[in-house]
Amino acid sequence: MLINSIIMSGDYMIYIWLAIIILLTIVELMTVELTTIWFVISAIVSLILSFFVDSFVIQCAVFIILGIILLITTRPILLKLIAKYRRKKNIENLIGMRAYVVSPISPNNLGEVKVNGQNWLAHADETIDMDTYVTVIEINDHKLKVSKDG
Prior knowledge:
The chain is α+β, with helices and mostly antiparallel strands. The protein folds into two domains: 90 residues, no CATH class; 51 residues, CATH 2.40.50.140. The protein contains four helices and five strands; from the N terminus they run H-H-H-H-E-E-E-E-E. Strands 1-2-3-5-4 form a five-stranded mixed β-barrel. The chain is rod-shaped and about 75 Å long.
């Protein structure tokens, strides 16, 4: 009973919340799943709350409820933003790469090229025959602008 009252007193809850914050931060850094980060944020809120409210139950309720709300509402949005950023970065990596012309390209007609095993629509300022190699020089609206090698 004495240990229980010491742990749940306001003075020690600060250290417990700090330990939870550190532990959850380490877990998030190891997994990078954007799951425990929301509970890190709710633990920070509970840490701040522990300066004003001595109730262990209230602090834990805030920690759990806020963590779940943040996880459910914010994680999907952040995952979409990260995926969009990664896609954009991956597409930008195609600039400067060699591509194989799968279908002819002319200034007035889109053709098709293969880069890294994926087919892409492509356009060029000149006519480029099939079965030749080109270099990706620009990307516009998921279409590659290419030029003849050499």
